[in-house]
């Protein structure tokens, strides 16, 4: 007696169906590839169907008082989640601490852009002042709970990052994962990077805390809103070979106009 093989439901298929239903209920249009990506890859805001509403709010780290040795006796320590987006021009990291200042100075930064709204620690302000670094603060909401990243905020950040007169520039939020990840991902789209390469770079820095809503945002971001500046500053190339990405050593809505703070 012959039997017909019937494909049994799997956990993956169940999750895939759940994610598709999730999008349909929200009336959200998204690509099949992104939906399948959500079903196959861990995201902290899709665990158990949760949107991360109960997650603790990420806060700017408190400054730590420590004894600092003379510069000639110190090693250079990059901030956690540090990487070169465009070597020599654009860098990314978590919130710099005092032990990272010598390393940042070695980059000969002209500009730092902070993507969180909290006050800037005094020692950080003093470092930027002494180093002659101009500082911008653009509040970008995190994709957490019912809160979403706003395109207008990303546009203001990109207007600063894409302006080559601000380079070399460091982009940072608190952990260098989500807000920074969204800014870099939208910049990669402007550069013409393949979406899979952009997702891979995002996960390199955000895992194991990657957020699916970040990926929904940067896949649907309208790059035309900043394309005039991108063309003016020669970021849009006829062909992009995919410059090598520097991963971290270990995967360790405001409407105000952005202006330099220092």
Task: Explain what this protein looks like in three dimensions.
It is a single chain. The longest helix has 16 residues, at 11-26. This protein has helices at residues 11-26, 32-40, 101-106, 122-131, 151-161, 179-191, 195-206, 212-220, 227-232, and strands spanning 83-86, 90-93, 111-114, 134-137, 169-172. It is an alpha/beta fold. The termini are far apart. Strand 3, helix 4 (122-131) and strand 4 (134-137) form a beta-alpha-beta unit. Helix content is 35%, strand content 8%.
Task: Write a concise keyword list for the protein shown above.
262 residues; alpha/beta; 9 helices; 35% helix; disordered N terminus
List the helices and strands and how they pair.
Layout: H1 11-26, H2 32-40, E1 83-86, E2 90-93, H3 101-106, E3 111-114, H4 122-131, E4 134-137, H5 151-161, E5 169-172, H6 179-191, H7 195-206, H8 212-220, H9 227-232
Parallel strand pairs: 2-5, 3-4, 3-5
Antiparallel strand pairs: 1-2
Helix pairs in contact: 1-2, 6-7, 6-8
Report the sheet-strand fraction: 5-15%
What general outline do the C-alpha atoms trace? Answer: globular
Mean of all residue-level pLDDT scores: 78
Main β-sheet description: 5 strands, mixed
Structural class: alpha/beta
Strand order of the largest sheet: 1-2-5-3-4
Number of strands: 5
CA radius of gyration is 20 Å
Q: Enumerate how many helices there are, as a single number.
A: 9
Q: What order do the helices and strands follow?
A: HHEEHEHEHEHHHH
What is the helix content? Answer: 25-40%
How widely separated are the two ends?
81 Å
Low-confidence stretches: 1-8, 49-58, 61-67, 239-259
């Amino acid at each position: 007696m012959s039997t017909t093989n019937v494909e049994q439901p799997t956990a993956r298929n169940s999750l895939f169906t759940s994610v598709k239903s999730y999008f349909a209920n929200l009336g959200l249009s998204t690509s099949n590839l992104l939906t399948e990506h959500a079903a196959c890859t861990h995201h902290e805001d899709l665990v158990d169907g949760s949107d991360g509403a109960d997650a603790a709010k990420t806060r700017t780290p408190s400054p730590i008082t420590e004894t600092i040795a003379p510069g000639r006796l110190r090693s250079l320590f990059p901030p956690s989640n540090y990487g070169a987006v465009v070597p020599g021009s654009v860098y990314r990291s978590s919130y710099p601490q005092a032990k990272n200042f010598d390393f940042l100075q070695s980059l000969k930064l002209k500009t730092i852009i902070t993507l969180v709204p909290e006050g800037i620690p005094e020692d950080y302000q003093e470092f930027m002042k002494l180093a002659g670094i101009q500082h911008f603060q653009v509040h970008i909401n995190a994709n957490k709970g019912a809160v979403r990243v706003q395109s207008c905020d990303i546009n203001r950040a990109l207007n600063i990052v894409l302006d080559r007169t601000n380079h070399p520039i460091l982009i940072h939020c608190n952990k260098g994962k989500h807000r920074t990840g969204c800014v870099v991902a939208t910049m990669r789209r402007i550069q013409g990077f393949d979406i899979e390469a952009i997702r891979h770079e995002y996960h390199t820095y955000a895992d194991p805390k990657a957020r699916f809503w970040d990926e929904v945002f940067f896949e649907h971001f309208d790059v035309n809103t900043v394309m005039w500046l991108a063309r003016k500053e020669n970021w849009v190339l006829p062909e992009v070979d995919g410059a090598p990405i520097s991963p971290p050593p270990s995967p360790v809505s405001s409407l105000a106009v952005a202006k330099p703070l220092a």
